[in-house]
Specification:
- The structure holds two protein chains of two kinds.
- By secondary structure, chain A is an alpha+beta fold.
- Chain A has one domain: Coenzyme PQQ synthesis protein D (PqqD) (Arc Repressor Mutant, subunit A, Orthogonal Bundle), CATH 1.10.10.
- Chain A has three helices and five strands; from the N terminus they run ββββαααβ.
- In chain A, the strands form two sheets. Chain A has a three-stranded antiparallel β-sheet with strand order 2-3-4. In chain A, strands 1-5 form a two-stranded antiparallel sheet.
- In chain A, helix 2 crosses helix 3.
- The radius of gyration of chain A is 13 Å and the shape is globular.
- The model of chain A has no long low-confidence stretch (mean pLDDT 90).
- Chain B is α/β, with parallel strands linked by helices.
- Chain B is 36% helix and 12% strand.
- In chain B, strands 8-7-6-5-4-3-2-9-10 form a nine-stranded mixed β-sheet, with helices on both faces.
- The N terminus of chain B is likely disordered.
- At the A-B interface, strand 2, strand 3, strand 4, helix 1 and helix 3 of A face helix 1 and strand 1 of B.
- The structure holds iron/sulfur cluster (2 copies).
- The site of one iron/sulfur cluster (SF4) has 14 residues of chain B, from loops.
Chain lengths: 94, 410
C-alpha cells in the first residue's frame, strides 16, 4: 500500500469526475476530462458506496454484509482504495 | 480544432490499471465508438497556421447538419456505446444551438467537452452550458506573448483568451488548456506552463504539431528542431515534478522525430468516431484524403451502419490490409502500421507503413522534410493561413501552392 489508507479515512470521488453505470459496457465507469476507466467487478461496488460520509471501515463492513460469501475481501477493498487514490480518482474528505 | 485534442492523445490518457491486480483491474474496451467527436462546423474566426482541418474545408461550410440531425446522431452514437463527447470545429460557438446539443448530451449520459478557441464564449452562454450539464471546456492557448498568439492565429485574441480562462474557472469548470507547440512557442514552454499554473489549469496538453491539413502546408515553417523538442520535454518533466498531481500535464510527442509511428486513433475504427459538419462519418480527422473510400454520411444510412458495416470503417480494421514490412513485423500490435493518411499523403500508398517508421521504405521522406525545415530559404516562405480565401483556392484547384508534392489535398 503506497497511500497509507486508514480505516477512518473518508473518501469521495475527485472533483470533475463522474461515476456511472454503462449499459453498453456492462460495468461501472469513471469519467473525467479526456479519459475514462472501466471498473471491473468489485471496484464499482466500492466506488458506488463513497458518498463523502462513509469511512473506509464502513465500506468494508457494508460490502462484507452485502457479499457474505466473498472470502477475505478486506484486502481487495483496501487495494482498490489504494489504487484509486494513487490514480487521483478519489479525494480525501476528512 | 486544435490538434491532438481528442484523437492521438486518447491513447496516452487511457488508464491502464490492469497490472495492479487487486481484483480491481481496470481497462478500456476496444469494440465501441467510445469517443464521439462532433465537428459541428468548419467555420472559424481564427486562422491558425497549424489547424488540422482540411485545407479544402470551404466545400463543407454550406451544408451543415441541423440541430435535429445532431441530436439524432448523439442518440445513435450513444446506443453504440459512445460516452465521451467532444464538441469541436472550426469554432463550435459559431453555431447558436450548442446549448441544445449540450442539454441532449447530458440527458443521454455523455461526458461532454466543448473544444473552443474561446471566441464567442459569453457569460450568458457559459451559464447556459453549466445549467445544461456540459462537463468541461477545453480552451486553446498559444503563447505567453501577445505577439505570437496574434501572429500564429492571425487574429487579435490574446486578451480575450485570458478573460475566457477566468470565466471558465469562475463557473467551476475544470480548466483544460490545449497548447499546440511549434517553432514559434517551443522556446517558451516553461513560461507557458507557469501561465497555465497561474490561471489555475487542472489539465494542460502540450500538443506538438502533427502535420495534417494546414500544418502540413506550413510544415517547414512550423517544425522545431529535435533538440528543442528534447529540451521542451525536459522542462515539462521538471515542471511536473514541481506541481505534482495538482496540474496534469500531457506532452504529446511529435512522431516525425521518433522512429516508430503512433498508433493512430488507437486503431482505425476501434474507439473513435468523428461526425463532421456536413455529416460525413470518419474514423479520423483527415481520412477524407484517402483514395478509393466512400465515407458514410449520417443523412444516409445512420451511425450504426457506418460504424459496424460500412466498407470505410472496416477497410483498415485489424491488420489484414497490411503489406510488408508491417505484415510480418513483430511490433505491429504496438502501432498497427501507423497512420494511413500520413502514409498516403506522403508516399502515395495508403497501405504502406507510415513513413515515420525507420523500417518503412519511404522513411527518407520524413528525413527530407526535417532537412527542408532547416533550410533558411524554405523557412523564409510565408505561412499560408487557414482562411476561407485560401481554402477556396485549394478547393477549386486554383492553387496547389506547397501541396503539389503530396498525394492528396491535405
Ligand atoms: S483555425 Fe485555429 S481555432 Fe479555428 S479550428 Fe483551426 S486550429 Fe481551431
Ligand atoms: S514496420 Fe510497420 S508494423 Fe512494424 S513498426 Fe514499422 S510501421 Fe509498425
Amino acid at each position: 500500500m503506497e497511500n497509507n489508507i486508514q480505516p477512518t479515512d473518508i473518501y469521495a470521488l475527485a472533483l470533475h469526475h463522474r461515476f456511472q453505470w454503462e449499459e453498453a459496457q456492462s460495468s461501472y465507469v469513471i469519467l473525467f476530462p479526456e479519459g475514462m476507466v472501466k471498473l471491473h467487478g468489485g471496484a464499482g461496488e466500492v466506488i458506488k458506496r463513497l458518498d463523502g460520509k462513509l469511512s473506509v471501515a464502513d465500506v468494508v463492513t457494508d460490502l462484507k454484509a452485502t457479499f457474505p460469501d466473498a472470502q477475505n475481501i478486506e484486502n481487495d477493498i483496501l487495494g482498490m482504495f489504494d489504487l484509486a487514490v494513487g490514480k487521483a480518482w478519489l479525494r480525501k474528505v476528512n | 480544432m486544435t490538434q491532438a485534442s481528442l484523437g492521438d492523445s486518447l491513447v496516452q490518457k487511457e488508464v491502464h490499471a490492469q497490472q495492479q491486480n487487486n481484483g480491481v483491474a481496470a481497462n478500456i474496451t476496444h469494440t465501441q465508438p467510445l469517443w464521439l467527436l462532433a465537428e459541428v462546423t468548419y467555420r472559424c474566426p481564427l486562422h491558425c497556421a497549424f489547424c488540422y482541418n482540411p485545407t479544402d474545408y470551404d466545400k463543407h461550410t454550406q451544408n451543415e447538419l441541423t440541430t435535429e440531425q445532431w441530436i439524432q446522431a448523439l442518440r445513435d452514437a450513444r446506443k453504440l456505446g459512445a460516452i465521451q463527447l467532444g464538441i469541436s470545429g472550426g469554432e463550435p460557438l459559431l453555431r447558436d444551438d450548442i446549448e441544445d446539443i449540450v442539454i441532449e448530451a447530458k440527458k443521454l449520459g455523455y461526458y461532454s467537452n466543448l473544444i473552443t478557441s474561446g471566441v464567442g464564449l459569453t457569460e450568458k452562454r457559459i451559464q447556459a452550458f453549466k445549467e445544461g450539464g456540459l462537463d468541461h471546456i477545453q480552451l486553446s492557448m498559444h503563447d505567453i506573448t501577445e505577439e505570437i498568439n496574434n501572429f500564429i492565429t492571425n487574429t487579435k485574441t490574446f486578451e480575450l483568451k485570458k478573460k475566457v480562462a477566468a470565466m471558465i474557472k469562475n463557473h467551476g469548470y475544470p480548466m483544460v488548456l490545449n497548447v499546440v507547440i511549434h517553432r514559434y512557442n517551443i522556446g517558451h514552454i516553461k513560461e507557458i506552463l507557469e501561465m497555465a499554473e497561474a490561471l489555475g489549469a487542472d489539465y494542460v496538453e502540450l500538443a506538438n504539431t502533427q502535420y495534417y491539413g494546414w500544418s502540413l502546408v506550413n510544415r517547414s515553417q512550423l517544425m522545431p528542431l529535435k533538440e528543442q523538442i528534447d529540451e521542451a520535454e525536459r522542462i515539462t518533466n521538471e515542471f511536473r515534478q514541481k506541481v505534482g498531481n495538482k496540474m496534469k500535464i500531457f506532452f504529446v510527442v511529435p512522431d516525425y522525430f521518433g522512429n516508430r509511428p503512433k498508433k493512430c486513433m488507437n486503431g482505425w475504427g476501434e474507439v473513435f468516431m468523428i461526425v463532421t459538419a456536413n455529416g460525413d462519418v470518419l474514423p479520423c480527422h483527415s481520412a477524407r484524403v484517402l483514395p478509393n473510400i466512400e465515407f458514410p454520411n449520417v443523412r444516409e444510412k445512420g451511425l450504426e451502419w457506418a460504424w459496424k458495416d460500412s466498407p470505410a470503417f472496416n477497410k483498415y480494421r485489424g491488420d489484414d490490409w497490411m503489406k510488408e514490412p508491417c505484415r510480418s513485423c513483430s511490433e505491429k500490435e504496438n502501432d498497427l502500421g501507423g497512420c494511413r493518411c500520413q502514409a498516403f499523403l506522403l508516399s502515395g500508398d495508403a497501405e504502406s507503413a507510415d513513413p515515420v517508421c525507420s523500417k518503412s521504405p519511404n522513411h527518407h521522406l520524413i528525413e527530407q522534410a526535417i532537412e527542408e525545415s532547416k533550410n533558411p530559404q524554405i523557412q523564409a516562405q510565408p505561412i499560408i493561413f487557414r482562411t476561407d480565401k485560401n481554402s477556396k483556392k485549394y478547393a477549386s484547384g486554383e492553387s496547389t501552392e506547397r501541396i503539389d508534392s503530396f498525394h492528396a489535398i491535405p
